[in-house]
Protein backbone atom coordinates (compact mmCIF):
# COMPACT_ATOMS: atom_id res chain seq x y z
CA UNK A 1 0.00 0.00 0.00
CA UNK A 2 1.42 3.39 -1.01
CA UNK A 3 1.55 6.27 1.44
CA UNK A 4 2.59 9.90 1.40
CA UNK A 5 3.61 11.84 4.50
CA UNK A 6 2.97 15.56 4.86
CA UNK A 7 2.44 18.30 7.36
CA UNK A 8 0.86 21.72 7.79
CA UNK A 9 2.62 23.81 10.48
CA UNK A 10 3.93 20.52 11.88
CA UNK A 11 0.49 18.95 12.29
CA UNK A 12 1.46 15.78 10.41
CA UNK A 13 -0.48 13.21 8.43
CA UNK A 14 -0.16 9.93 6.60
CA UNK A 15 -2.08 10.09 3.32
CA UNK A 16 -3.42 6.80 2.03
CA UNK A 17 -4.52 6.88 -1.61
CA UNK A 18 -7.59 4.66 -2.05
CA UNK A 19 -8.48 5.12 -5.75
CA UNK A 20 -10.90 2.19 -5.87
CA UNK A 21 -12.49 2.78 -2.47
CA UNK A 22 -11.53 -0.68 -1.24
CA UNK A 23 -9.54 0.22 1.86
CA UNK A 24 -11.33 -0.81 5.03
CA UNK A 25 -9.42 1.21 7.63
CA UNK A 26 -9.58 -0.27 11.11
CA UNK A 27 -9.05 1.78 14.24
CA UNK A 28 -6.02 -0.32 15.18
CA UNK A 29 -4.44 0.08 11.72
CA UNK A 30 -4.74 3.87 11.95
CA UNK A 31 -3.35 3.91 15.49
CA UNK A 32 -0.51 1.64 14.33
CA UNK A 33 0.41 3.88 11.39
CA UNK A 34 0.33 6.98 13.60
CA UNK A 35 2.50 5.46 16.32
CA UNK A 36 5.76 7.43 16.40
CA UNK A 37 7.87 4.46 17.44
CA UNK A 38 6.33 1.43 15.76
CA UNK A 39 4.60 3.08 12.81
CA UNK A 40 5.20 5.98 10.42
CA UNK A 41 4.19 8.51 13.04
CA UNK A 42 1.49 11.15 12.55
CA UNK A 43 -1.30 13.13 14.20
CA UNK A 44 -3.80 11.63 11.78
CA UNK A 45 -4.54 9.68 8.61
CA UNK A 46 -6.12 11.13 5.47
CA UNK A 47 -7.67 8.49 3.23
CA UNK A 48 -8.10 9.87 -0.29
CA UNK A 49 -11.10 8.21 -1.90
CA UNK A 50 -13.09 9.27 -4.98
CA UNK A 51 -16.38 10.75 -3.76
CA UNK A 52 -18.42 8.59 -6.13
CA UNK A 53 -16.99 5.43 -4.54
CA UNK A 54 -17.96 6.41 -0.99
CA UNK A 55 -21.71 6.32 -0.16
CA UNK A 56 -20.95 8.46 2.91
CA UNK A 57 -19.28 11.14 0.75
CA UNK A 58 -22.01 11.05 -1.93
CA UNK A 59 -24.60 11.71 0.78
CA UNK A 60 -22.59 14.62 2.22
CA UNK A 61 -22.12 16.20 -1.24
CA UNK A 62 -25.81 15.76 -2.09
CA UNK A 63 -26.84 17.36 1.21
CA UNK A 64 -24.49 20.29 0.55
CA UNK A 65 -25.97 20.81 -2.93
CA UNK A 66 -29.51 20.64 -1.57
CA UNK A 67 -28.59 23.25 1.04
CA UNK A 68 -27.47 25.52 -1.79
CA UNK A 69 -23.69 25.20 -1.31
CA UNK A 70 -21.89 26.27 -4.50
CA UNK A 71 -20.31 22.89 -5.18
CA UNK A 72 -18.37 23.22 -8.42
CA UNK A 73 -19.99 21.13 -11.21
CA UNK A 74 -17.08 18.78 -11.93
CA UNK A 75 -15.78 19.34 -8.42
CA UNK A 76 -15.87 17.63 -5.07
CA UNK A 77 -14.35 14.61 -6.78
CA UNK A 78 -12.42 13.55 -3.69
CA UNK A 79 -13.45 12.71 -0.14
CA UNK A 80 -11.02 13.34 2.72
CA UNK A 81 -11.71 10.51 5.16
CA UNK A 82 -9.94 11.90 8.22
CA UNK A 83 -8.95 9.80 11.26
CA UNK A 84 -7.25 10.95 14.46
CA UNK A 85 -4.07 9.28 15.71
CA UNK A 86 -6.07 7.10 18.10
CA UNK A 87 -8.12 5.79 15.15
CA UNK A 88 -11.26 7.81 15.89
CA UNK A 89 -13.07 9.60 13.05
CA UNK A 90 -13.44 13.37 13.01
CA UNK A 91 -15.54 15.66 10.89
CA UNK A 92 -12.89 18.07 9.73
CA UNK A 93 -9.19 18.87 9.84
CA UNK A 94 -8.01 22.26 8.59
CA UNK A 95 -4.29 21.49 8.40
CA UNK A 96 -5.07 18.06 6.99
CA UNK A 97 -7.21 19.49 4.22
CA UNK A 98 -4.43 21.80 3.05
CA UNK A 99 -2.03 18.85 2.93
CA UNK A 100 -4.70 16.73 1.22
CA UNK A 101 -5.16 19.40 -1.47
CA UNK A 102 -1.40 19.62 -2.01
CA UNK A 103 -1.27 15.83 -2.38
CA UNK A 104 -4.12 15.75 -4.93
CA UNK A 105 -2.42 18.36 -7.10
CA UNK A 106 1.08 16.87 -6.81
CA UNK A 107 -0.29 13.42 -7.68
CA UNK A 108 -2.08 14.82 -10.75
CA UNK A 109 -5.49 13.98 -9.25
CA UNK A 110 -6.69 17.59 -9.22
CA UNK A 111 -5.80 20.66 -11.24
CA UNK A 112 -3.90 23.43 -9.48
CA UNK A 113 -6.03 26.40 -8.55
CA UNK A 114 -9.39 26.05 -6.88
CA UNK A 115 -11.50 22.94 -6.27
CA UNK A 116 -13.90 21.39 -3.78
CA UNK A 117 -13.26 18.50 -1.41
CA UNK A 118 -15.85 16.51 0.54
CA UNK A 119 -15.24 16.25 4.28
CA UNK A 120 -17.53 14.96 7.04
CA UNK A 121 -18.19 18.61 7.94
CA UNK A 122 -19.45 19.30 4.40
CA UNK A 123 -17.94 20.37 1.10
CA UNK A 124 -14.95 22.70 1.49
CA UNK A 125 -13.37 24.82 -1.23
CA UNK A 126 -9.56 24.89 -1.36
CA UNK A 127 -7.30 27.27 -3.29
CA UNK A 128 -3.62 26.62 -3.89
CA UNK A 129 -1.57 29.78 -3.92
CA UNK A 130 1.60 30.36 -5.88
CA UNK A 131 3.82 30.62 -2.80
CA UNK A 132 3.11 27.13 -1.43
CA UNK A 133 0.25 28.27 0.76
CA UNK A 134 -3.21 26.77 0.61
CA UNK A 135 -6.40 28.60 1.59
CA UNK A 136 -9.54 26.78 2.70
CA UNK A 137 -13.02 28.16 2.96
CA UNK A 138 -13.81 26.77 6.41
CA UNK A 139 -17.46 27.83 6.48
CA UNK A 140 -19.13 29.87 9.17
CA UNK A 141 -17.90 29.01 12.68
CA UNK A 142 -20.80 28.84 15.15
CA UNK A 143 -20.49 30.04 18.74
CA UNK A 144 -22.76 27.77 20.76
CA UNK A 145 -22.19 29.02 24.30
CA UNK A 146 -19.64 29.00 27.07
CA UNK A 147 -17.93 26.26 29.02
CA UNK A 148 -14.78 25.61 31.04
CA UNK A 149 -11.57 23.61 30.74
CA UNK A 150 -9.53 22.48 33.72
CA UNK A 151 -5.79 21.91 33.87
CA UNK A 152 -4.98 20.43 37.22
CA UNK A 153 -6.55 22.81 39.74
CA UNK A 154 -6.76 25.69 37.28
CA UNK A 155 -9.92 26.58 35.40
CA UNK A 156 -10.16 28.38 32.05
CA UNK A 157 -13.38 29.85 30.71
CA UNK A 158 -13.94 29.50 27.01
CA UNK A 159 -16.33 29.63 24.10
CA UNK A 160 -17.96 26.53 22.68
CA UNK A 161 -17.34 26.83 18.94
CA UNK A 162 -18.37 24.53 16.12
CA UNK A 163 -15.94 24.66 13.18
CA UNK A 164 -17.43 21.50 11.71
CA UNK A 165 -15.81 19.77 14.69
CA UNK A 166 -16.13 20.77 18.36
CA UNK A 167 -13.85 23.30 20.05
CA UNK A 168 -13.51 25.02 23.39
CA UNK A 169 -11.43 28.17 22.86
CA UNK A 170 -10.18 29.72 26.11
CA UNK A 171 -8.51 33.13 26.12
CA UNK A 172 -6.26 33.50 29.14
CA UNK A 173 -3.86 36.11 30.53
CA UNK A 174 -1.52 33.36 31.68
CA UNK A 175 1.24 32.81 29.07
CA UNK A 176 0.19 29.62 27.29
CA UNK A 177 3.83 28.56 26.87
CA UNK A 178 3.88 27.81 30.59
CA UNK A 179 0.86 25.52 30.67
CA UNK A 180 1.16 21.80 31.14
CA UNK A 181 -0.78 20.12 28.32
CA UNK A 182 0.75 16.69 28.81
CA UNK A 183 -2.57 15.25 29.99
CA UNK A 184 -6.14 15.54 28.76
CA UNK A 185 -7.64 18.77 30.18
CA UNK A 186 -10.95 18.38 31.94
CA UNK A 187 -14.16 19.45 30.16
CA UNK A 188 -17.89 19.13 30.67
CA UNK A 189 -19.05 15.91 28.95
CA UNK A 190 -22.64 17.16 29.01
CA UNK A 191 -21.57 20.02 26.70
CA UNK A 192 -19.19 17.86 24.66
CA UNK A 193 -20.59 14.32 24.57
CA UNK A 194 -18.34 13.47 21.59
CA UNK A 195 -15.21 15.02 23.14
CA UNK A 196 -13.64 18.33 22.23
CA UNK A 197 -10.52 20.04 20.94
CA UNK A 198 -9.30 22.54 23.55
CA UNK A 199 -7.43 25.71 22.63
CA UNK A 200 -5.69 27.96 25.15
CA UNK A 201 -4.69 31.30 23.79
CA UNK A 202 -3.21 34.68 24.56
CA UNK A 203 -4.24 37.80 22.69
CA UNK A 204 -0.80 39.35 22.13
CA UNK A 205 -1.34 42.27 19.78
CA UNK A 206 -3.35 43.75 17.00
CA UNK A 207 -5.32 40.76 15.72
CA UNK A 208 -2.59 38.35 16.76
CA UNK A 209 -2.86 35.40 19.12
CA UNK A 210 -0.57 32.72 20.49
CA UNK A 211 -2.28 29.35 20.79
CA UNK A 212 -1.69 25.86 22.09
CA UNK A 213 -4.10 23.01 21.56
CA UNK A 214 -5.00 19.66 23.06
CA UNK A 215 -6.69 17.76 20.26
CA UNK A 216 -9.40 15.18 20.66
CA UNK A 217 -7.98 11.81 19.62
CA UNK A 218 -4.38 13.05 19.45
CA UNK A 219 -3.18 14.91 22.55
CA UNK A 220 -1.19 18.11 22.30
CA UNK A 221 -0.24 18.83 18.68
CA UNK A 222 1.96 21.65 17.29
CA UNK A 223 -1.01 23.07 15.37
CA UNK A 224 -4.70 22.65 14.62
CA UNK A 225 -6.29 24.46 11.68
CA UNK A 226 -9.87 24.27 12.88
CA UNK A 227 -8.55 25.27 16.31
CA UNK A 228 -6.97 28.44 14.92
CA UNK A 229 -10.34 29.43 13.46
CA UNK A 230 -11.95 28.90 16.88
CA UNK A 231 -9.11 30.90 18.48
CA UNK A 232 -9.62 33.79 16.05
CA UNK A 233 -13.35 33.80 16.80
CA UNK A 234 -12.69 33.88 20.57
CA UNK A 235 -10.08 36.64 20.23
CA UNK A 236 -12.37 38.64 17.96
CA UNK A 237 -15.21 38.40 20.49
CA UNK A 238 -12.91 39.67 23.21
CA UNK A 239 -11.93 42.63 21.02
CA UNK A 240 -15.58 43.34 20.18
CA UNK A 241 -14.97 42.48 16.53
CA UNK A 242 -16.45 39.90 14.19
CA UNK A 243 -14.60 40.30 10.90
CA UNK A 244 -10.94 40.78 10.00
CA UNK A 245 -7.72 38.86 9.61
CA UNK A 246 -6.00 37.26 12.59
CA UNK A 247 -2.50 35.82 12.74
CA UNK A 248 -2.38 32.74 14.91
CA UNK A 249 1.02 31.68 16.22
CA UNK A 250 1.15 28.00 17.09
CA UNK A 251 4.20 25.95 18.17
CA UNK A 252 4.47 24.67 14.57
CA UNK A 253 4.36 28.03 12.79
CA UNK A 254 1.98 30.75 11.69
CA UNK A 255 -1.52 30.52 10.25
CA UNK A 256 -3.82 33.25 9.02
CA UNK A 257 -7.53 33.25 9.71
CA UNK A 258 -9.87 35.68 8.01
CA UNK A 259 -13.31 36.03 9.53
CA UNK A 260 -15.90 37.26 7.06
CA UNK A 261 -19.62 38.02 7.46
CA UNK A 262 -20.67 34.57 6.24
CA UNK A 263 -17.60 32.39 6.29
CA UNK A 264 -14.00 32.02 7.44
CA UNK A 265 -10.77 31.41 5.53
CA UNK A 266 -7.71 29.55 6.76
CA UNK A 267 -4.38 30.07 5.01
CA UNK A 268 -1.10 28.31 5.69
CA UNK A 269 1.58 26.00 4.35
CA UNK A 270 1.14 22.41 3.22
CA UNK A 271 4.24 20.32 2.66
CA UNK A 272 4.73 16.75 1.44
CA UNK A 273 7.88 15.22 2.89
CA UNK A 274 8.02 11.52 2.01
CA UNK A 275 6.40 8.64 0.18
CA UNK A 276 6.75 4.91 0.40
CA UNK A 277 5.13 1.52 0.81
CA UNK A 278 3.44 0.03 3.85
CA UNK A 279 3.71 -3.76 4.13
CA UNK A 280 0.15 -5.19 4.00
CA UNK A 281 0.67 -6.90 7.36
CA UNK A 282 1.01 -3.49 9.02
CA UNK A 283 -2.50 -2.55 7.89
CA UNK A 284 -4.12 -5.85 8.82
N1 LIG B 1 -5.67 18.88 13.46
C1 LIG B 1 -6.93 19.17 12.91
C2 LIG B 1 -8.14 18.74 13.65
C3 LIG B 1 -8.23 17.21 13.64
C4 LIG B 1 -9.52 16.68 14.21
C5 LIG B 1 -9.64 16.88 15.68
N2 LIG B 1 -8.60 16.24 16.45
C6 LIG B 1 -11.03 16.37 16.11
O1 LIG B 1 -11.13 15.25 16.64
O2 LIG B 1 -12.00 17.09 15.90
C7 LIG B 1 -7.02 20.53 12.27
O3 LIG B 1 -5.99 20.97 11.74
O4 LIG B 1 -8.10 21.11 12.19
UniProtKB/TrEMBL annotation:
It catalyses: (2S,6S)-2,6-diaminopimelate = meso-2,6-diaminopimelate. The keyword Amino-acid biosynthesis applies. GO terms for molecular function: diaminopimelate epimerase activity. InterPro entries: DAP_epimerase_AS, DAP_epimerase_DapF. One of its GO terms (biological process) is lysine biosynthetic process via diaminopimelate. Its main location: cytoplasm. Its EC number is 5.1.1.7. It is found in: Cytoplasm. The record marks 167, 215 as: Could be important to modulate the pK values of the two catalytic cysteine residues. SUPFAM superfamilies: Diaminopimelate epimerase-like. It comes from the Bacteria. The active site is at 93, 93 (proton donor), 224 (proton acceptor). The keyword Calcium does not apply. Pathway: Amino-acid biosynthesis; L-lysine biosynthesis via DAP pathway; DL-2,6-diaminopimelate from LL-2,6-diaminopimelate: step 1/1. Keywords: Amino-acid biosynthesis, Cytoplasm, Isomerase, Lysine biosynthesis. Substrate binds at residues 11, 84, 94-95, 165, 197, 215-216, 225-226. Homodimer. Catalyzes the stereoinversion of LL-2,6-diaminopimelate (L,L-DAP) to meso-diaminopimelate (meso-DAP), a precursor of L-lysine and an essential component of the bacterial peptidoglycan. Belongs to the diaminopimelate epimerase family. PANTHER family: DIAMINOPIMELATE EPIMERASE, DIAMINOPIMELATE EPIMERASE, CHLOROPLASTIC. HAMAP family: DAP_epimerase. This is Diaminopimelate epimerase. It comes from Sphaerisporangium melleum.
